[in-house]
Amino acid sequence: MGFLITTLIFLVVGIIASLCVRICCNRGPSTNLLHLTLVITATICCWMMWAIVYIAQMNPLIVPILSETE
Amino acid sequence: MGESRGGGCCPPMDLMRSETMQLVQLIVPMESAHLTVSYLGDLGLVQFKDLNSEKSPFQRTYAAQIKRCGEMARKIRFFKDQMSKAEVLPKELLEKESDIDLDDVEVKLGELEAELVEINANNDKLQRSYNELMEYKLVLQKAGEFFSSAHRSATAQQREIESEDSQQAGDDLLESPLLQEKSVDSSKQVKLGFLTGLVPREKSMVFERILFRATRGNIFIRQTVIEEPVIDPSSGEKAEKNVFIVFYSGERAKSKILKICEAFGANRYPFSEDLGKQAQMITEVSGRLSELKTTIDAGLGHRNVLLQTIGDKFELWNLKVRKEKAIYHTLNMLSLDVTKKCLVAEGWSPVFASNEIQDALQRAAVDSNSQVGSIFQVLRTKESPPTYFRTNKFTSAIQEIVDAYGVAKYQEANPGVFTIVTFPFLFAVMFGDWGHGICILLATMYLILREKKLASQKLGDIMEMAFGGRYVILMMSLFSIYTGLIYNEFFSIPYPLFAPSAYDCRDASCSEATTIGLIKVRDTYPFGLDPVWHGTRSELPFLNSLKMKMSILLGVSQMNLGIIMSYFNARFFKSSVNIWFQFIPQMIFLNSLFGYLSVLIIIKWCTGSQADLYHVMIYMFLSPTDELGENQLFPHQKTVQLVLLFLALVSVPCMLLPKPFILKKQHEARHQGQSYAPLDETDESLHVETTGGSHGHEEFEFSEIFVHQLIHTIEFVLGAVSNTASYLRLWALSLAHSELSSVFYEKVLLLAWGYNNVFILIIGILVFIFATVGVLLVMETLSAFLHALRLHWVEFQNKFYEGDGYKFAPFTFIFTANEDE
To answer: What distance in Å separates the CA atoms of residue B569 and residue B551, rounded to the nearest whole number?
Structure first.
């Protein structure tokens, strides 16, 4: 549940970012495609990293064992 | 493969492929050649080919002009030297200075040089005389003191002489002859002469000793130290000297002493014993000294004025001479047409620049009042054009990084497009700490905000590199802040920024927290790593497992991206053999093994199964038909594994065998009617045959192609394993970074805090800051930069990049600041 919601948030942020980039630096179709590619790549990279760390903690096999001094 | 290209498979994207280049031929009439090259240089979009490469530099047409420019450049260097010695700064060049004629410049330079050299020579002479006079003055003063003291003691002695004391010290005895000399003038047979002068202090003892020995002890020498150093006339530098006076008898002794003085560089000056004459000499010398001083000052003033006038025009002349030299070098590359009325130029230029080039040619023809215009035509050739990417200040740094490995072949896919994002991202995976990220962000923001000012200054080597890469570092810092938030590390301290931690004690007493551990009671921590982990005993096993699997997942994704780029290349170059027998087997091989591993990782995480993935993978190969037992992650896993294994094994010969045979067939089909070569290739314009080595028919060695394909296959198959493992460096460096960071925090800062002493605290904070900046911000940054670079250059690019092109180097007047002629 939390996973899907946050994935949707990433998707929405990605779309907003590409729209912003299109609005503020609109310089011809080939350049726009480049900017779009960069934004999509960045979004996918960031999402992947977040998703990996999130999924790894969903069903943990190791639990935190506090150290003695606590 | 000739000039015509594919494309049209996907919409064009900036920076993805090189600009389309064309080989152009320009035919320029002689009178407008110089202006044409000058305007094309201003444009900066044509790379001229050297059509006279077999000629030596002296045989070329414009060798004399280049020599002229070389002479002028030498004079300009001489002026610069003189100006820096006199500390005159050249005036900054304004944007639009009026154009000046090279002949005028040459004449002016010649005149100014002659004048400057003359002034310098005169100055030197005057300075020398001045120094000599200074020395003479010192000699007069000091030697005068000898004589006056001698006179005083001699008059004192005279009173004692009557007492007939034979126990007199040697020098008194010797001094009284002086007095006797004065009174008994001419009737002596043995005349004592004396010489006065200056000798350098370090040689004075040796001087004295040698004089003594040479004259067998028959001299008397006195020396006085001069307190301040004196400027030596011959060398022009300050030296410590002593004034000496040597008394001798006889001509032979005199000549020996003279020679020894010369050998020691001791300057001699005439001195008269007469007190009145001495005083006169001193006043005369003083007078001449002050005269000389004013003359020298006037000379220096005149020289400074001259240097100022040079400084006003210096930059202008400098630029003009360099421009002209570049133009003549380029003109030397053009070939003279047989009728000797025009020059032919060949060069590469981007297709989009055709209009601008034709414009420039027009303007040059008009401005040089030539009757004939220049001709611009495009040649067809089989040569491979240079690669040209139009980059701005943001993308140029990344493009340079990619080019450092190898310049892209003409029109192949440019890895730089994705590197702009993935390089800072992989750096950040290894660097992940949002505190450090903020520090680097501040540093690079400073560089970016002071961009204009720093660009015009001359920075040191390291600063130059950091400044050139400022946008890359900006991206790196932004991504580092992101990954720092995900790893939840702020100078190694975690914060529950987004929600409380998901873990809590099993019961209210928390008795088992240190033995069995906490349990997960709430939802998963929504963004990043749970803050409870830091400092626990099971932190490392958990984090290591997480980061290793993350590295594999990221690595497999990037390698897949690389193989997909090779698909786009194959589509662009319309090579279906590459698609079917390279791209598809490669995808199948990589994904059926390591893609499957990635899927298993995700399934294990999602289901929380206890399966051991090492065993799953290893037994998939060793005993694929065995029962899986507790390593079962999803139903029908065994069948799936068998199928994948089969696909992987089949894809290897698919990569190896078909392609060489198909290429052979294609080659034969292409060159079936080879003996009937079309005739129209020969009546192209004048120089097509001589340009480059365009072979009419390529050689095809089957065995070479086969071996090449074998190497490629082995490299890919073995590389699939080794490259995937290589991505584990993402884990390794991130572990190192977080451990270093936590050590510095706990063992320096917390330790200093624990002493409750302000002094120790301050020292602790200083050590912490220095350690953080030196080790973590500088060393770790460089280290992570290097490893991310390696991952791109090797693991990503060897999937698709050939990188054997050459870079477009247009003729342009934008000189670097320290370019030598």
So the answer is: 27
Residue B250 vs residues B171, B185, B215, B269, B428: alpha-carbon distances, Å: 19, 17, 10, 19, 92
- Gyration radius of chain B's alpha carbons: 43
**Residue in B67, B73, B83, B74 with CA at minimum distance from that of residue B116:** B83
Which alpha helices (H) appear in B573-583, and where do they start and end?
576-578
> Closest Cα to residue B18, out of B653, B743, B803?
B803
* ipTM of this complex prediction, to 2 decimal places: 0.96
Residue B16 in contact with partner chain A when CB distance is under 8 A: yes
Which of B11, B529, B542 shows the shortest C-beta gap to A33? B11
> To the nearest whole number, what is the mean pLDDT of chain B?
85
Q: What are phi and psi of A61, to 5 degrees?
A: -95, -25
**Of B28-32, B35-39, B91-95, B539-543, where does mean pLDDT reach its minimum?**
B91-95
CA distances (Å), B318 to each of B321, B324, B607, B819, in order? 5, 10, 74, 12
Yes or no: say if B349 and B21 are a contact pair by the CB < 8 Å rule: yes
Percent of all residues in chain B with a pLDDT value above 90, rounded to a whole number: 38
CB B786 within 8 A of CB B809: no
Backbone angles phi, psi at B426, to 5 degrees: -65, -35
| Shortest CA distance from A70: residue in chain B | B514
> Per-residue pLDDT tens for B548-567?
999 999 999 999 999 999 99
Q: What is the pLDDT of residues B655-712, one digit of tens each?
A: 999 999 999 998 888 887 665 555 555 544 444 444 444 444 567 788 999 999 999 9
- Report yes or no: B348 and B49 within 8 Å, Cβ to Cβ: yes
pLDDT tens string B404-428: 999 999 999 999 999 999 999 999 9
CA distances from residue B254 to B194, B246, B259, B260, B524 in whole angstroms, order as listed: 9, 10, 9, 10, 108
pLDDT of residue B104: 85
Helix ranges restricted to H, B223-274: 251-264
* Token reading at B576: 């279906």
Q: Which of B215, B202, B195 is nearest to B261 (CA)?
A: B195
B535 touches chain A (CB under 8 A): yes
Q: Closest residue of B to A38, CA-based?
A: B421
Which residues in chain A are contacts of B549 at CB distance < 8 A?
52, 56
SS3 content of chain A, % helix, strand, coil (to 5): 75, 0, 25
- Which of B400, B353, B507, B382 has the alpha carbon at shortest distance from B42? B353
List the one residue out of B316, B314, B319, B320 whose CA is nearest residue B90: B314
Beta-carbon count within 10 A of B476 CB: 26
Distance from CA of B538 to the nearest CA of A (A): 6
Query: Taking the CB of residue B298, how many other CB atoms lie within 10 A of it?
Result: 11
Q: Which of B3, B789, B761, B775 is nearest to B382 (CA)?
A: B3
CA pair distance B319, B496, nearest whole angstrom: 61
Positive or negative, the CA dihedral B451, B454, B455, B460 is negative
Question: How do the residues of chain B divide into helix, strand and coil, expressed in percent and rounded to 5?
Answer: 60, 10, 30
User: Is residue B53 packed enough to be buried (19+ CB in 10 Å), middle (13-18) or exposed (0-12)?
Assistant: exposed
- Interface residues on A facing B, Cβ-Cβ cutoff 8 A: 2, 6, 29-31, 33-34, 37-38, 41-42, 45-46, 48-50, 52-68, 70
- Nearest-CA residue of chain A relative to B547? A53
How many angstroms from the chain centroid is the CA of residue B504? Answer: 55
- Chain position carrying tokens 């600041």: B817
Write down the pTM of the prediction.
Answer: 0.81
Whether the per-residue pLDDT at B818 is higher than 60: the answer is no
